[in-house]
């Protein structure tokens, strides 16, 4: 018998993502989305969380693996900052979306801050972040 699908709030049943020992060993295009108040994944070293490494450390490791230049494009929204490295090895790209709040959840749009779905679509289609309809 299989387990029921995970729902919001079921983090205790979820497996860590990535699983322990999972290390990116070759350049990949990756978008990482985090929140400053995530109780599971700390934002930076020294902050409390249940998983490791902290988000900023993971992005640093990904930048090193992808051999990204220091040049970034940063977009600031009312409750989120999106930093993108477009000049990485083999044409890969890396982006880091950091929401001010949201915990360990999929960030919905909030006011003029795009939700995760909009950020994911824009990043992987290489298009501008689409505004929400009125």
Write up this protein.
It is a single chain. By secondary structure, the protein is of the alpha+beta class. It has helices at residues 55-66, 116-125; strands at residues 30-35, 73-77, 80-85, 94-99. Strands 1-4-3-2 form a four-stranded mixed beta sheet, sandwiched between helices. The longest helix is centred in the middle third of the chain and has 12 residues, at 55-66. The model is unreliable at 1-6 and 11-16 (pLDDT under 50).
Radius of gyration: 15 Å
Strand arrangement within the widest β-sheet reads: 1-4-3-2
Category from helices, strands and their pairing: alpha+beta
Strand/helix succession: EHEEEH
Give the helix tally. 2
Low-confidence stretches: 1-6, 11-16
**Principal-axis shape:** globular
Largest sheet: 4 strands, mixed
């Amino acid at each position: 018998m299989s387990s029921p699908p995970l729902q919001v709030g079921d983090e205790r049943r979820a497996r860590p993502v990535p699983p322990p020992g999972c290390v990116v060993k070759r350049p990949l295009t990756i978008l990482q989305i985090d929140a400053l108040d995530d109780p599971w994944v700390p934002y930076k070293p020294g902050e409390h969380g249940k998983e490791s490494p902290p988000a900023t450390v993971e992005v640093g490791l990904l930048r090193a693996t992808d051999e990204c230049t220091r040049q970034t494009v940063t977009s600031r929204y009312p409750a989120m900052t999106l930093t993108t490295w477009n000049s990485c090895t083999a044409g890969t790209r890396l982006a880091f979306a950091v929401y001010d709040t949201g915990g360990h959840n999929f960030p919905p749009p909030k006011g003029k801050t795009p939700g995760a779905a909009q950020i994911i679509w824009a990043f992987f289609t290489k298009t501008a972040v689409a505004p929400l309809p009125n």
